[in-house]
Design goal:
This protein is of the alpha/beta class and 232 residues long. A five-stranded parallel sheet has the order 3-2-1-4-5, with helices on both faces. The chain has nine helices and five strands. The longest helix has 17 residues, at 30-46.
C-alpha cells in the first residue's frame, strides 16, 4: 500500500490509482515465493551468522516479509548515511516494524566519495554483522545481475539473493495484495513523466545522475533535502 505524503501531487495520486488497480489483479508466482523461502532457509542453515540488508525500497519490503513468514531471527540492517538518507524510508520502516517483529538494527555512516573510506565502512559492517548477507537484489535490474545468476544461481560465496527471479510487476503485486507498506517514492511520478519501475529509495549524495532523469526528479520532489546538502 502506497504511503501518501505532502510531496505527492494530485496528478500523482490519480495516476497511482491506476497502478494500484493493476497490482490488485496482477499474479505473482507462488512457485517463486516458495523457491525464495527455500533459498533463504538453506542459506541460513549453512550460514547461521548471516544478516539481511534493507533499503526500505520495494524489494527490501518483500524480502523482510518473507523472512518474517519463516520466522527468521537474523539481524536486519539498514545502513543510513547521516544527513543524506531519504526521509521517506523512515515512514516505510515505522509502518513495517509496527506490524512485523524482526531483529532490526540501524547503522549510521557518513557518505564519502573516497572508495578507501567506503571499504572501511564495509569492514565495519562485516565485523559487526558477518561477511554473509541476504539482499533483495533481482536479475531484471541489470545485465550483470543476470550474468551472476547464471554463474551462481541465487547464492554465491558471501551473498544470497532470494528474489533473483522475481519481476518488477510481481514485487508491486505482492506488496499490494499482502497490504505491505510501499515507499512514497514510487508515487512521485511527475504526473506521468516518470515510471515507478525506475524510481529508487536512494540516499542524496549531491552527485548528479541522469539515470531516468534522476537529477530533475530529485529537484522536483526533494528540493528541501538538496538545499540542505548544498549548504553543508
Amino acid at each position: 500500500m502506497l504511503i501518501i505524503t505532502d510531496r505527492h501531487t494530485k496528478a500523482d495520486l490519480e495516476l497511482y490509482k491506476e497502478y494500484k488497480e493493476i497490482d490488485k489483479i496482477t499474479a505473482f508466482s507462488a512457485a517463486k515465493v516458495e523457491r525464495s523461502l527455500r533459498v533463504i532457509e538453506t542459506w541460513i542453515a549453512n550460514h547461521p551468522d548471516t544478516s539481511a540488508y534493507t533499503s526500505w525500497g520495494k524489494d527490501s519490503v518483500v524480502l523482510l516479509h518473507l523472512l518474517y513468514l519463516m520466522g527468521a531471527k537474523i539481524p536486519v540492517v539498514y545502513v543510513r548515511y547521516k544527513g543524506s538518507d531519504n526521509p521517506d524510508c523512515e515512514l516505510v520502516r515505522d509502518a513495517f516494524l509496527n506490524n512485523y517483529n524482526i531483529n532490526y538494527y540501524e547503522e549510521n555512516l557518513t557518505f564519502n566519495k573516497d572508495e578507501k573510506k567506503n571499504r572501511h565502512h564495509k569492514k565495519i559492517l562485516i565485523d559487526k554483522y558477518s561477511k554473509f548477507r541476504i539482499t533483495g537484489i533481482r536479475n531484471d535490474e541489470s545485465g550483470i545481475r543476470k550474468m551472476i545468476f547464471l554463474m551462481h544461481r541465487e547464492c554465491s560465496t558471501y551473498s544470497c539473493r532470494p528474489l533473483s527471479l522475481w519481476k518488477n510487476k510481481e514485487i508491486f503485486a505482492y506488496i499490494e495484495q499482502n497490504n505491505l507498506p510501499l515507499s512514497p517514492v514510487y508515487g512521485y511520478l511527475g504526473g506521468g513523466r516518470w515510471d515507478r519501475k525506475h524510481l529508487r529509495t536512494h540516499s542524496f549524495t549531491g552527485v548528479r545522475g541522469d539515470s531516468f532523469g534522476k537529477t530533475e526528479w530529485e529537484k522536483e520532489y526533494y528540493p528541501d533535502i538538496l538545499n540542505r546538502i548544498a549548504l553543508k
